[in-house]
């Protein structure tokens, strides 16, 4: 479950089986929300993030991205063409969007999430998390222990397989240094992303 807020008072958290809750008072109370419609109403909602234009996006099951241009009041389902789950997404420094998920699938959008183009990730490992360094290098982590690195803002990737093969669940950047997490906790790393 991840949380997206547009003000200090208002925000939405999402989760499995279409679960979503919303607060209007900085988390003191929460109300259940229904985000998807019809076949999207019980889809797993994996990651919520916002674009540089303020559009909110949720990566979900069945290659679906839900988008809201009114800070979560209404949602539109956008189909990427993928049939697998999409687990993570981010807005890149150049304004484009990048999402990823099962079986190495990755997609980019240059139009604020209205349409999505396939990106060759170079792997079939399921992709779990995306982060961008201060030098604009992009890293994606995978369940098979691979680190995907892009020096052209997610247009192309090179794959570096970690020797221990730990399933990497998340990455955050501290400047140009990645901080990696696995199912077993933080993963020590002493390298920058390039």
Structure description:
It contains no helices and 19 strands. A 4-stranded antiparallel β-sheet has the order 1-2-3-4, with no helix packed on it. A 4-stranded antiparallel β-sheet has the order 5-6-7-8, with no helix packed on it. With 194 residues, it is mainly beta. The mean pLDDT is 89. Helices cover 0% and strands 46% of the residues.
How would you describe the shape?
A: globular
Ranges where pLDDT stays below 50 over 5 or more residues in a row are: none
Strand fraction equals over 45%
- Tally of alpha and pi helices: 0
End-to-end gap: 30 Å
Encode the helix/strand succession as letters: EEEEEEEEEEEEEEEEEEE
Give a concise summary.
With 194 residues, the chain is mainly beta. The chain is built from no helices and 19 strands.
Topology:
Blueprint lengths: L1 E4 L5 E4 L5 E4 L7 E3 L11 E6 L5 E5 L3 E5 L7 E4 L6 E6 L5 E5 L4 E4 L7 E3 L7 E6 L5 E5 L3 E5 L7 E4 L6 E7 L2 E6 L2 E3 L7
Features:
19 strands; 194 residues; single chain; globular; four-stranded antiparallel beta sheet
């Amino acid at each position: 479950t991840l949380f997206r807020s547009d003000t200090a008072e208002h925000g939405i958290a999402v989760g499995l089986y279409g679960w979503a809750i919303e607060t209007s008072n900085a988390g003191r109370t929460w109300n259940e929300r229904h985000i998807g419609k019809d076949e999207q109403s019980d889809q797993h909602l994996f990651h919520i993030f916002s674009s540089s234009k303020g559009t909110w996006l949720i990566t979900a099951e069945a290659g679906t991205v839900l988008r809201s241009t009114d800070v979560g009041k209404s949602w539109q389902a956008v189909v990427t063409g993928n049939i697998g789950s999409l687990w993570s997404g981010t807005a890149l420094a150049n304004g484009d969007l990048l999402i990823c998920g099962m079986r190495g699938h990755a997609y980019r959008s240059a139009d604020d999430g209205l349409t999505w183009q396939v990106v060759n990730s170079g792997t079939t490992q399921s992709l779990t998390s995306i982060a961008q360094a201060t030098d604009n290098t992009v890293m994606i982590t995978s369940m098979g222990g691979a680190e995907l690195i892009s020096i052209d803002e997610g247009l192309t990737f090179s794959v570096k397989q970690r020797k221990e093969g730990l399933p990497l669940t998340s990455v955050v950047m501290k400047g140009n240094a990645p901080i990696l997490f696995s199912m077993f906790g933080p993963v020590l790393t002493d390298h920058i992303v390039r």
